[in-house]
């Protein structure tokens, strides 16, 4: 069976509730239009194509996942630095003001962290976004779901994505002791509340990041997930880089944008090394051809013979023509507006200081757009395995 891609989520949501599915479809349609539209710069209202917004609510997290770009082996949000950064989080009223400003666009919202449940007003924020008519998804490590299950179901959250990387022993080696069982308890609590409240929401999915620590155990997790009453399982092939790409990228950012790029090094983990592409493809093929009672999705979908190349030839592009600066934005926990969550060192403005539309159409925003548009393939040197580009970039011939 051919692997399903991320767009398979929409029919599933439509089957659960038409209005919710249509909200997500609205965002995907705008993304599709952006791929074929002419790219604009100065003198253009870029809000016309705006479709998706990320809220990175907090730098804090209760886990230390090995491959995490923030708090993993090479992450940059650790210890006292992270604690000090957490004092800068955006208050709920500021987020509400931004949601009001964007209500006419009905963008798709994606809330994450750190761990979003460590943001004190998460539930109130989700409720407000959905009241304003937008689709809202929350990405969590799942270890705190049990505590908030009653309200999550009561408020009919649209979607929850839970990060889980393997069956119990391997998952806990990657994410921390006891993390697997806490996720299971969270799913059980949500499902109990859905039954008690006679609700079909939230729709729930699992996101698994493929590394050399878990790729041989993916099928065991797929089987275990049959008991979780989830709607889909996304296999993220992972964002990886190396010393050469990092150096090239840092030089480009310094020359073109006048900044020192720091985030990319966090993906230079080596957790791609040693992955047997043929074995991984065989495992994914088995998963996609088996009915576990939920959708199995791979990002990116690749031709079988390219799987090994994806992990071991990181300089070869798989997708290009990034559309992120023309369609979306990421709000950092301190209010800084960036296009990409991995390039927080280049904010284009701050929602505490300026209306969002002014920021999105501003001089710094267009400077960033010009910089990426002038790159070969319209992607930065370090974005060659970017997850966002794997989702929405242009698929190259042969992949």
Low-pLDDT sequence parts: none
First-last Cα distance: 17 Å
Content-based structural category? alpha/beta
Mean pLDDT: 89
Instruction: Assign a percent range to the helix content.
Output: 25-40%
Encode the helix/strand succession as letters.
HHEHHEHEHEHHEHEHHEHEHEEEHHHE
Strand content: 5-15%
- Tell me the overall shape: globular
Main sheet summary = 10 strands, mixed
Gyration radius (Cα, Å) is 20 Å
Q: What's the multimeric state?
A: single chain
What's the helix count? Answer: 16
- Give the beta-strand count: 12
User: Widest sheet: strand order?
Assistant: 7-6-5-4-3-2-1-9-10-11
What does this protein structure show overall?
There is one protein chain. Helix 1 packs antiparallel against helix 2 (about 20-35), helix 4 packs parallel to helix 5 and helix 6 runs parallel beside helix 8 (about 180-195). The chain has helices at about 10-15, 20-35, 80-85, 90-100, 120-130, 145-155, 170-175, 180-195, 220-225, 245-255, 275-290, 305-310, 325, 355-360, 365-375, 385-390; strands at about 50-55, 110, 135-140, 160-165, 205-210, 230-235, 295-300, 320, 330, 335-340, 350, 395. Helix 9 links the parallel strand 5 (about 205-210) and strand 6 (about 230-235). With about 400 residues, it is α/β, with parallel strands linked by helices. The protein has 16 helices and 12 strands. The strands form 2 sheets. A 10-stranded mixed sheet has the order 7-6-5-4-3-2-1-9-10-11. A two-stranded antiparallel sheet has the order 8-12. The protein starts with 8 loop residues before the first helix and ends with a strand. About 40% of the residues lie in helices and about 15% in strands.
């Amino acid at each position: 069976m051919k692997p399903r891609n991320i767009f398979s989520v929409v029919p599933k949501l439509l089957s659960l509730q038409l209005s919710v599915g249509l909200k997500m479809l609205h965002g995907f349609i705008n993304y599709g239009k952006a791929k074929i539209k002419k790219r604009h710069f100065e003198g253009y209202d870029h809000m016309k194509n705006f479709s998706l917004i990320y809220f990175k609510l907090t730098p804090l997290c209760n886990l230390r996942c090995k491959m995490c770009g923030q708090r993993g082996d090479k992450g940059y949000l650790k210890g006292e630095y992270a604690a000090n950064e957490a004092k800068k989080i955006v208050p709920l009223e500021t987020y509400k003001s931004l949601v009001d400003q964007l209500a006419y666009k009905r963008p798709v919202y994606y809330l994450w962290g750190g761990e979003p449940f460590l943001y004190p007003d998460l539930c109130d924020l989700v409720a407000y976004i959905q009241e304003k008519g937008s689709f809202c998804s929350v990405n969590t490590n799942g270890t705190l779901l049990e505590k908030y299950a009653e309200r999550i179901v009561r408020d009919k959250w649209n979607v929850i994505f839970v990060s889980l990387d393997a069956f119990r022993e391997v998952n806990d080696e990657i994410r921390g002791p006891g993390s697997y069982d806490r996720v299971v308890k969270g799913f059980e609590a949500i499902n109990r509340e859905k039954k008690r409240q006679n609700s079909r929401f939230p729709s729930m999915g699992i996101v698994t990041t493929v590394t050399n620590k878990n790729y041989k155990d993916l099928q065991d997790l797929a089987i275990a997930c049959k008991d979780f009453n989830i709607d889909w399982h996304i296999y993220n092939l992972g964002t990886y880089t190396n010393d050469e790409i990092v150096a090239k990228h840092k030089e480009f950012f310094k020359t073109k944008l006048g900044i020192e790029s720091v985030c990319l090094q966090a993906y230079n983990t080596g957790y791609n090394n040693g992955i047997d592409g043929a074995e991984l493809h065989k495992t994914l093929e088995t998963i996609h051809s088996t009915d576990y009672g939920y959708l199995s999705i791979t990002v990116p979908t690749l031709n079988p013979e390219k799987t090994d190349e994806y992990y071991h030839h990181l300089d070869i592009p798989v997708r290009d023509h990034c559309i992120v600066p023309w369609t979306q934005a990421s709000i950092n926990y301190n209010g800084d507006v960036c296009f990409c969550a991995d390039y927080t060192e280049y904010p284009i403005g701050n929602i505490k200081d300026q209306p969002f539309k002014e920021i999105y159409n501003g001089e710094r925003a267009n400077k960033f757009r010009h910089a990426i548009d002038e790159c070969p393939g319209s992607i930065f040197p370090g974005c060659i395995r970017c997850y966002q580009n794997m989702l929405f970039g242009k698929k190259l011939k042969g992949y």
